[in-house]
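The pair is quoted verbatim below.
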Amino acid sequence: MQIIECFHTALLVTDLQKAEDFYSHVLGLTKIDRSLNYPGTWYQIGNFQLHLIVDSSISTDLHNAEKLGRNPHLAFKVADLEAAKTQLIAGNYSVQSSASGRSALFTKDPDNNIIELTQI
C-alpha cells in the first residue's frame, strides 16, 4: 500500500447550524456541494476536505480539558496566528496556547471538537 494524499476528515456535530457558523464564518472555510441523503456539510481546503456529519447522540466530553492538544484534533495552518486568535476571542471562543511553546493555539468548535491553528 502506498498512501499518496489525505483526502478528507469527518467530524461529528450535534447542531449543523452552530457548526456551520463556526466553520464558515469564524474559520472562513469554503462550503462545497454534496449530494448525500443525510445531514451534513462539506468544506474544501486546498486539496483536502472537511466533512461535518450530524449525529445528535455523540459525546462532547474531552479526554484532557487542561491541555486541548492532547485530545483528538484537526490542525490547520494559518497566515497570521495573532489575527486568528483575535478573531476567535472576539467571537467568544476560548483559545489555549500550545503547551510546547511553538506558534500554535487550540480552540473548540460548538461540539468540543478540537481545532489547532498553527503558523509555520
